[in-house]
Design a protein that fits this description.
about 0% strand; mainly alpha; about 70% helix; about 150 residues
């Protein structure tokens, strides 16, 4: 672990971001083997992903924020972040392609192709994750000993 501590904050953030990217790739591998999935399976997987996301937000991000700055600033930051993501969701065109037959364009009308809208949706999804990794590594003293 000494090699990781010796990298400095930018190197550590890069390695952490690369790790989350690789885990995302591993999570998408089943797409290579299955062309379609039953609706109930997709609903269950999306529910599980939502629950994991809420748990990660609560225990890995919100709890440490409350310990560092207190309840009010942490809750204000959480609500501000949710408002920004809601604004992005409303302002930018995108698709929810879980079920291609039901995927409808949302947001303002643009002449973009579905592939461009899919890339935009993935970028919107990854923005808060990347911010969390960067802020987490920038604010943590990884080399500190207890």
């Amino acid at each position: 672990m000494d090699w990781f501590v010796g990298l400095g904050p930018i190197g550590q953030a890069f390695i952490a971001t690369l790790g989350t990217y690789l885990l995302t790739v591993v999570g998408t591998l089943p797409v290579l083997f299955f062309r379609t999935a039953p609706r109930r399976l997709m609903d269950g997987l999306m529910g599980a992903a939502g629950g994991i996301t809420v748990a990660a937000c609560s225990w890995s991000l919100l709890e440490p924020a409350i310990e560092l700055v207190g309840v009010s600033p942490a809750v204000i930051g959480l609500l501000l972040g949710a408002a920004v993501l809601y604004g992005i969701d409303q302002a930018l065109p995108h698709l929810h392609p879980e079920f291609p037959d039901e995927a409808a364009r949302e947001g303002p009308k643009v002449p973009w192709r579905r592939s461009a809208l899919l890339m935009l949706a993935i970028s919107i999804h990854n923005f808060p994750e990347g911010m969390a990794v960067g802020v987490g590594y920038a604010g943590a003293d990884i080399g500190a000993t207890a």
